[in-house]
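#structure-requests
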Amino acid sequence: MLNRFLFVQSVLILLKLQSMQKSTLSLITGCILCSFSLVSFSQTKVKEKVISPPEKIHWYSFEEAYQLNKKKPKKIFIDVFTDWCGWCRKMDAETFTNPVINEYMSKHFYCVKFNAERKDTLVIDGVTFTNPNPASRRSTHQLAVELLKGNMSYPSYVFLNEKSQWLTVISGYQVAKDFEPILHYFGEDAYAKTPWEEYRASFEGEIK
């Protein structure tokens, strides 16, 4: 009888231990799943905070911008460059990629890239512009000469009004902070009523 009693007690103890082990295992499993859920949630929250990069400026050809301006008038900004111009590449890499500059130019101008040494022929309102010596290196296109008024310096930026009439040309590399007031000066027609030095002195831009 004693042996049978001890046997039953041993079985009960083993069953209790197995039950405790299952509970402990369930608790550990639950903690692990909870940890994975927290990590997943944390990763999701981090992804939500990622800011999309600003859109790039949409660059038109001169011909495209000229025709668009006839249908929906807006000022035209022309970046006159050459393939060998290092400061032109620096302007592309640093100033034109600034989100403040990017947004303002896209909103207020048809933006044009014009290679001053392009080889083809353009006909604008019946007027023909050519490169007089397209086979030679650094031969300047006639339209580039017209746009820059003979001052062939690169990079240069030409501003045209809503009627595609020439306003001015500005030459040289510009850091974003210095370029911002120039864009506003013409984009907001301040040039028509305020001297440049006075406008620049009072200008408060977004770029610090």
